[in-house]
């Protein structure tokens, strides 16, 4: 339901005081279906906990927020134990460039991105935009796509491939075109089967683990060439 998607009070707020307890809770429920994180004593879980704590201490203006463990786990998986410093460097750099806006106290970072996606949808496919205007005018159903950049829709190797391209994007908005491309490519299903918010949300959730990364990126790049107002 829409209520389940709306962030709970304080969910993305900066945690006051020592965040270690919350970090530990979040780390031990992150990606437990992935082999590298399945065991309670898995080395990568310990690394994740350490790196998130270091980030919170070194960046007190942001601190630690729920959801960050979802963003650092693919980096840990890619670099593994022998490259802890590289994992931290990449996480901190991408946070400073792009992800930190997703953890603003006001929630304005996510809202701004969803508004931009709404504007793009109106340009690219007015029929889909009209449907959203009726069943989900705030585009809350796409909140997760925006927050963690399709991380829960893909297997880890595909997450790494998608994020690598997104990170190379100077405008830092390619993920919005990926979302737009998915809606446009599946427009018949969206228009015929998503007449309520719950049906739309069900459709979005059913796309998990079924995305073709190469196709999604091609669609996103083509759409941005057509509809972007920013300099490439």
Number of strands: 0
Strand content: under 5%
- CATH topology type of the largest domain: Cyclin A, domain 1
Order of helices and strands: HHHHHHHHHHHHH
CATH architecture heading of the largest domain: Orthogonal Bundle
Main beta-sheet annotation: none
Helix content: 55-70%
Compact description:
With 232 residues, this protein is mostly helical. Helix content is 62%, strand content 0%. Residues 1-170 form the Rab-GAP TBC domain.
Task: Give an overview of the whole structure.
The chain is an all-alpha fold and 232 residues long. It has two domains: 2-103, Helicase, Ruva Protein, domain 3; 108-227, Ypt/Rab-GAP domain of gyp1p, domain 3 (Cyclin A, domain 1), CATH 1.10.472. The chain is 62% helix and 0% strand. The chain has 13 helices and no strands. The longest helix is centred in the middle third of the chain and has 17 residues, at 108-124. It starts with a helix and ends in a 5-residue tail after the last helix.
How would you describe this structure in keywords?
232 residues, mainly alpha, Helicase, Ruva Protein, domain 3, Cyclin A, domain 1, 2 domains, 13 helices, globular, disordered N terminus, GTPase activator activity, Rab-GAP TBC domain-containing protein, Rab-GAP-TBC_dom, GTPase activation
């Amino acid at each position: 339901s829409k209520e389940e998607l709306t962030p709970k009070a304080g969910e993305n707020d900066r945690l006051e005081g020592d965040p270690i307890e919350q970090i530990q809770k979040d780390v031990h429920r992150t990606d437990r279906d992935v082999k590298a994180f399945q065991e309670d004593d898995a080395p990568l879980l310990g690394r994740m906990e350490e790196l998130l704590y270091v980030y919170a201490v070194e960046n007190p203006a942001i601190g630690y927020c729920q959801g960050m463990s979802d963003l650092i786990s693919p980096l840990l998986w890619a670099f593994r134990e022998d490259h802890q410093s590289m994992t931290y460097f990449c996480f901190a750099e991408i946070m400073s460039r792009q992800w930190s806006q997703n953890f603003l106290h006001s929630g304005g970072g996510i809202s701004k991105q969803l508004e931009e996606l709404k504007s793009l949808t109106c340009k690219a496919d007015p029929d889909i935009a009209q449907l959203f205007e009726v069943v989900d005018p705030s585009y809350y159903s796409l909140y997760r796509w925006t927050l963690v950049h399709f991380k829960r829709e893909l297997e880890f190797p595909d997450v790494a491939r998608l994020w690598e391209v997104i990170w190379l994007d100077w405008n830092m908005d390619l993920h919005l075109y990926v979302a737009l491309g998915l809606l446009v490519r599946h427009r018949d299903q969206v228009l015929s089967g998503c007449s309520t918010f719950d049906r739309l949300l069900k459709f979005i959730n059913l796309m998990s683990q079924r995305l073709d990364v190469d196709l999604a990126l091609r669609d996103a790049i083509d759409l941005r060439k057509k509809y972007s107002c920013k300099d490439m």
